[in-house]
Amino acid sequence: xxxxxxxxxxxxxxxxxxxxxxxxxxxxxxxxxxxxxxxxxxxxxxxxxxxxxxxxxxxxxxxxxxxxxxxxxxxxxxxxxxxxxxxxxxxxxxxxxxxxxxxxxxxxxxxxxxxxxxxxxxxxxxxxxxxxxxxxxxxxxxxxxxxxxxxxxxxxxxxxxxxxxxxxxxxxxxxxxxxxxxxxxxxxxxxxxxxxxxxxxxxxxxxxxxxxxxxxxxxxxxxxxxxxxxxxxxxxxxxxxxxxxxxxxxxxxxxxxxxxxxxxxxxxxxxxxxxxxxxxxxxxxxxxxxxxxxxxxxxxxxxxxxxxxxxxxxxxxxxxxxxxxxxxxxxxxxxxxxxxxxxxxxxxxxxxxx
Length: 354
Prior knowledge:
The chain has 354 residues and is of the alpha+beta class. It has helices at residues 4-33, 42-70, 76-105, 118-168, 173-189, 191-210, 219-237, 262-272, 310-323; strands spanning 216-218, 241-247, 255-257, 280-289, 292-300, 330-337, 340-348. The chain has a five-stranded mixed beta sheet, with helices on one face.
């Protein structure tokens, strides 16, 4: 069975073919009406030119079969050569056919009368067929280019989606192991707290592994995942971890790439805990300024602790790759501010937010 795409191509060709040759017939008739002698028959004019258009319709249909059989869609040179040869041959056939038609409706005239005009008419028909061939290959090449472009865009989209899925699955295994060990220790000590911790871990994993089918999600969902993550770490670090949130309510509806915030939160835990100062303080803030979201994760520690860590480099690379979706409308900065390390993201989205 023919595919939908092939059926669509065949249908569109014959629709254009019928419309094109009907337009040709009307154009020729309207052009010759002003030159028609007073005693000439208008119906005879329309009938003869309809036969002319009908022959052109049939001959170009045969030419299409030849082009499909012998001309590669990628070969412009072959298309030009075959078009010229086919146009000349079928132009002569067209002229002979029209001569036979005229002779059949005026049998009193000698057929030899049509010989004198044969070269000129055959040339005219060949030019018409050559123009049709140029139009045919022009449309064909344009459609091939459109299909290749759509396939390339689709491939790029799929590749980007696959990359985002791969980045989403890069969960820190140490966090998972530590969380499970903490839950195990908590089961006998405080079952309610252990159940709450399991719920928070499940919610975090749901966001990390399943996430959203969309490339972008509201910042609110990213913050919820970060809260679940930090709540689990809070149970592990107890009084040695202090967490603060300063989130503008308007910023929670701002669309951001999925799993953008958590790599920064993980780094703040991992490297902030190495600074030696207790407790480890982490602050997450988000605010809208004009059309720009400013998202920050600040923790106590030193920027030097981040250097040379492959895990950190992967996490920060993931953040930068997610921000590529916004191009020049986004930025990421990591800097030292006194005894704090600040990771700052800016995303500008022109127009109204959600």
